[in-house]
Amino acid sequence: MRAPKCFLVISLVLRCSFSIASEGMWLPLLLEKLNEKEMKSLGMKISARDIYSINSGSLKDAVVSFGGFCTGGIISSKGLVLTNHHCGFDAIQNHSTLEHNYIRDGFWAKDYREELTNPGLYATFIIRIDDVTKAVLTGVTPAMTESERQSVIDKNISELRKNVKKETHQESFVRGFFEANQYYLFVTETYRDIRLVGAPPSSIGTFGKDTDNWIWPRHTGDFSMFRIYAGKDNKPAEYSAENVPYVPKRSLSISLDGVNENDFTMVFGFPGRTTEYLHSEAVKQIIEVNDPVKIAIRDKALAVIDGFMRKDEQIKIQYAEKYALISNAWKKWQGEILGLTRTNAVARKKMYEAEFQKRVNASPQWKTEYGTLLSDLQTAYDELKPYGLANDYYLEITGKIELFSIARRINTLRILKNNGGKFDYSAALTKTRDSLVVFYREFSPVVDRQLFEVLMEMYVKDQDSRVVSTKVLEELKAANNDFKKWTNDIYGGAELTAGNKILASLEQNPADFLEKIKDNRVIVLYADMVDAYNRNVAGKLNEIQNRINILQRTYMQAQMAVMKEKKFYPDANRTLRLTYGNVKGFNARDGVKYDHYTYLDGVMEKYIPGDYEFDVPEKIRKLYRNKDYGQYGKNGRLPVCFIATNHTTGGNSGSPALDGYGNLVGLNFDRAWEGTMSDINYDPSICRNIMVDIRYVLFIIDKYAEAGQLIKEMKLVHPKKK
Ligand code: ARG
Ligand code: ASP
Q1: Which of 155, 476, 520, 551 has the fewest Cβ atoms within 10 Å of its own Cβ atom?
Q2: Residue 652: nearest ligand to its CA?
């Protein structure tokens, strides 16, 4: 019995100690040094310099941060940008009216003149990345306090940015990597005239909606198209009718050949946030404490909203977006717990930590510097646990009850007004009013009342009473601790739910209104909840979290020194990264094995006539019946989506997926549910990113929308028919 146990331990340690091909979100400027060899061994045919070079147009010049929340790829010499439907959704929604319902029916501009402007939307190119670690950390000493350290760093950064070599229209920022052990400077170019060019109807662009979200096998045509406009000099310019389509340094060639199982792919984009180097205790708390409580709160909130959406058409329209947003993370966290549990993430982290500690103990110098790191982190996380839990309760609950959101906006405005000119009150007044106009349009007091009742019960009953607001307890007591009675009381007399009245008061006599409203019951109640949170939770939470951040910074540095054989990549931080892997199916669960590709046949298998999630447009059904796939089909079938081992996260939506030659083969938009723990503990056995096949995108543009003029702009290639 002993020998196999020993082998198991060794193989687990090896799996965590050595980097696994596929894992990692790599900095483009380090590819040549760190990754090129491995990428070539996995099937890449181009060089690292074809991907990132500052002297000639490289693939990085065809990738943009889309509005700061998604990624886009340049697919024509006239500035055409491809991103996801869910990334362009806000723009599509803003242009939609009852007569022109672009969400339901799709939108296709026939020429430049029909392309629609989107104030506020932008696209940022990365011109250059420099390692500025030395300059940023100059003058930093181990003896410094955190705030001394930070002020030296801030000064160095502002000095660097003042002297950075760049053109006048370009910008720069510096960001910390590896828990602020390294710093990189980015020179960027941001275009702010971004116009909507095309989007399929929701029945294609969000086919499967929440039911299929995070799920493989998938059949969603999750894409939309925009165009970057520039001034006559091709430089960034504010919107103007005189602006012209931007001519990019580089655009992506599009492959009509697709990819097969095991083919090399890479995804180039702007991943948002990962935490791959946590202490095992932190991972344990995510699995046992934080994810479960957030899921439980959202379970209740979603059940309430769903109940109303099912019986009321108006509420369905008002709450569809909110529901999708709440359910997106809710579903992801469930997959995360499942994946972390199934791959023994905590046990694996512990084994890794044991190996780390063993090596540290063997070196007198490391032992002095790093000897107590792990136990210090354990202690800090033990202390953090109750505050982390209270933080989740507070944020989740006050974030879902919209009466509090109204109270927060109005109270913030009131405080600004009394602040005596330090802030621009009149600008804030306009902004609050405008945001409330939009807010009330999508607000139903009936739904909110129900949310209040069930969520406030959790706030009071499921938490340690020491963190609960005393005002809440007093009010409840006055209502005989009957949540229904208390809720009816509050909503029965709530001024704040009457949108028209509030907006009129803010229009006619805002100063008076803000003065009177300060005694409003909900505002007073909410203020006490905020106060209770600040006093009982936030202070301590921040103090412990700051301690953890410092320990984690040292732990990161220590891991890089001690675990020499491991190849480290920095956690995602909304900067440009490349991830690579191979097209691959996976064993999702016991007895469930998934293919790597889906086809239009699968869309038809899921088709439910007239359904909110699974309807299919008649024209697609007809094209399917006639097998009219043009040059986009393969052996009589039309590819729709595929999966690979690329390590992606939120923010990678809309990222171009490229083949070994650097041609566009797909568009990243999601991950498979079983592997959403890739944000914390990537595992190549179950982590898969989901991409829509570029041939499906082209088929929709060409055959469905008959927007051949867009296809003509693109460069279509056949790399496999060389
Ligand atoms: N799960 C994907 C990503 O996190 C897609 C989200 C949009 N789709 C949806 N049905 N909510 O963000
Ligand atoms: N759907 C995500 C996004 O919007 C991508 C992911 O989390 O895999 O960025």
Answers
A1: 155
A2: 2
In terms of DSSP bridges, do strands 586-589 and 254-255 run parallel, antiparallel, or are they unpaired? unpaired
Spot the catalytic one: 86, 219, 279, 596: 86
- Give the DSSP H or E segment for 446: helix 445-461
Pocket of ligand 1, candidates 326, 333, 670, 671: which has the most ligand atoms within 8 Å of its Cβ, to mutate?
670
pLDDT digits (tens, 9 = 90+) for 666-680: 999 999 999 999 999
Mutate to test the pocket of ligand 2, among 652, 680, 687 (most ligand atoms within 8 A of CB): 652
Q: Is 338 helix (H, G, I), strand (E, B) or coil?
A: helix
Q: What percent of the chain has pLDDT over 70?
A: 97
Q: 212-244: b or e for each residue (b if 16 or more CB lie within 10 Å)?
A: bbbbbbbbbbbbbbbbbbbbeeeebbeeeeebb
Name which of 58, 174, 32, 224 is nearest 125 in CA terms.
Answer: 58
pLDDT band at residue 22 using 50, 70 and 90 as cut-offs: confident
CB neighbour list of residue 196: distance below 8 Å, 6 or more residues apart: 88, 91, 92, 95, 107, 109, 115, 116, 118, 224, 225, 226
Report which ligand 2 atom has the smallest distance to the Cα of 69: 9
Tell me the CB-side half-sphere exposure of residue 685, using CA atoms within 13 A.
11
For the segment 336-366, what is each residue's pLDDT rounded down to a tens digit?
A: 999 999 999 999 999 999 999 999 999 999 9
Assess whether 462 carries a catalytic annotation.
no
Best CATH choice for the domain 14-122+192-272+572-721 from the list 3.30.565.10, 2.40.10.120, 3.30.43.10, 3.40.50.300: 2.40.10.120
Which atom of ligand 1 is least distant from the CA of 208? 10
Q: Which ligand is nearest to the CA of 643?
A: 2
Task: Name the residue at shortest CA distance from atom 3 of ligand 1.
Answer: 670
CA-closest residue to ligand 1 atom 4: 650
